[in-house]
Each structure stands twice: as C-alpha cells, then as structure tokens.
Write a structure and sequence with these properties.
The protein is α/β, with parallel strands linked by helices and about 160 residues long. About 30% of the residues lie in helices and about 20% in strands. It has a seven-stranded parallel sheet, covered by helices on one side. Helix 1 links the parallel strand 1 and strand 2.
Length: about 160
C-alpha cells in the first residue's frame, strides 16, 4: 500500500470485520462517529436492541460498510492507496506512540481473544501495539481501537 503524499486530507477507515461481539461493534461504532472516522467496516448488519442501545444512534451518522470475515482477505487486497496497519498485542509490533500515520490509513482490528490471523497480518504494511503497564495482557478491542483512532486524529487533525 502507499504512504500518502504531504497535503492529503485525513481519511481513516477502521476495519472491524473480525469482531464477533455486538457490544464491541456498537461501542466501536459510537467511538468512530464521535472521533470522525471516514468509514467503519463491520462483519454484518446488526439491527438488534443491544447494538442500537450501545451505539446510541451513532450508526445513523457513521458511514458503515460490511465485509464478512471469510471475505476479508479479498477485501483488503482491493483497498488500494491505503496504508494498512494492524492493531495487535504482538511483541514485534511497533509502539503506537512511535508511529507516524499516513493520511489515508486503514486500521485493522482483530478478533476478540485470538487477534488477527497470520495470513491477514501478512498483508498489512505495519503492526502497532499500545504500550501497557498493568498486569492484564490486553485492552478490550473497541477500547484499543478508540485509542488508536485518537492518536491518528492527534497527528492529522490537531489545530
């Protein structure tokens, strides 16, 4: 994928196709809308009460697209022009605090508990991790996604 030339406008896509829990999808939808994400990619349409309650109507304003998990590999290949970065807990990943986001970034989030499959991770241009200082192994995926989105915004949308 390509780095964006200087002067490009911020364009962040968050791909959460691997998320299985409606509560995480809905919370992420709400965070994406509040933080100005260009598009959110979810595995399927969810009109359930749980999703609507947690999303707090954000799904009405957030641009949402859908890609089933079994089509993710093919979908990622079609995302030309984006720098694809995976958010992971792998020790080899670059700390989020040291990463310079491209203007046109696709942030890939992993499945709850198991993360991002190796064949999908191999397609990514980079892997990021959020430095952690506690004893728990990782953050909830939607919380980690919100932190990464905030950092993208800090780099690209700060006055």
């Amino acid at each position: 994928m390509l780095d964006s030339p200087p002067g490009d406008l911020p364009c962040l896509t968050v791909c959460a196709t691997l998320l299985e829990k409606a509560a995480n999808q809905a919370s992420l939808c709400r965070s994406c809308e509040v933080l100005g994400v260009d598009r959110l990619v979810l595995p399927r349409v969810d009109e359930s009460w749980e999703f609507r309650k947690i999303a707090a109507s954000a799904q009405q304003w957030q641009r949402v697209e859908y890609c089933p998990p079994d089509q993710l590999l093919q979908w990622l290949v079609q995302q030309t022009g984006y720098r694809i970065v995976a958010l992971t807990v792998q020790a080899t990943a670059q700390p989020l605090t040291d990463y310079a986001f491209a203007a046109k970034t696709l942030l890939l989030l992993g499945r709850e508990l198991t993360g991002i499959p190796a064949n999908i991770l191999a397609l990514c241009d980079g892997a990021l991790t959020i430095p952690q200082y506690g004893r728990v192994e990782s953050l909830n995926v939607q919380t980690a996604g919100a932190i990464a989105i905030y950092e993208y915004n800090r780099q690209w949308r700060s006055p």
